[in-house]
């Protein structure tokens, strides 16, 4: 099964980024990770896309999931699996 593209804006030292990364890896998701410290222009890109300044910021397909807590909440509600299968959530 092909999943929608997953992108996470992150830093290498952020514990919330590590937690989000671990959850996505457990789900078998290939993640494109954008390090906003290695690519400073990516922070502006992240803020423009998400409206937020903190990492991680996670996108699955065209859906902005949010941060680590948002990702775990979505998973707890069963919405992450649906999003990974269809590219949409019930919230849309």
Summarize the entry for a quick read.
This protein has four helices and four strands; from the N terminus they run βαβαββαα.
Q: Poorly predicted ranges (pLDDT <50, ≥5 residues)?
A: none
- Number of DSSP helices? 4
> What is the typical, i.e. mean, pLDDT?
92
CATH level 3 topology:
Glutaredoxin
- Which CATH class is shown? Alpha Beta
Sketch the major β-sheet: 4 strands, mixed
Order of helices and strands: EHEHEEHH
* Order of strands across the main sheet: 2-1-3-4
Distance between the termini: 23 Å
The number of E-state strands comes to 4
CATH superfamily membership, which one?
Glutaredoxin
| Cα Rg | 12 Å
The proportion of residues forming helix, as a percent range, comes to 40-55%
Structural class: alpha+beta
Strand content: 15-25%
Describe what you observe in this structure:
- This protein is an alpha+beta fold.
- The protein has one domain: Glutaredoxin (3-Layer(aba) Sandwich).
- The chain is 42% helix and 20% strand.
- It contains four helices and four strands.
- Strands 2-1-3-4 form a four-stranded mixed β-sheet, sandwiched between helices.
- The longest helix has 12 residues, at 15-26.
């Amino acid at each position: 099964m092909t999943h929608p593209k997953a992108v996470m804006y992150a830093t290498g030292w952020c514990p919330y980024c590590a937690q989000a990364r671990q959850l996505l890896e457990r789900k078998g998701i290939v993640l494109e990770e954008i390090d906003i410290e290695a690519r400073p222009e990516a922070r502006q890109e992240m803020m423009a896309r998400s409206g937020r300044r903190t990492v991680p910021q996670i996108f699955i397909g065209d859906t902005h999931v949010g941060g680590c807590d948002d990702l775990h909440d979505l998973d707890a509600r069963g919405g992450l699996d649906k999003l990974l299968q269809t590219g949409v959530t019930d919230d849309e």
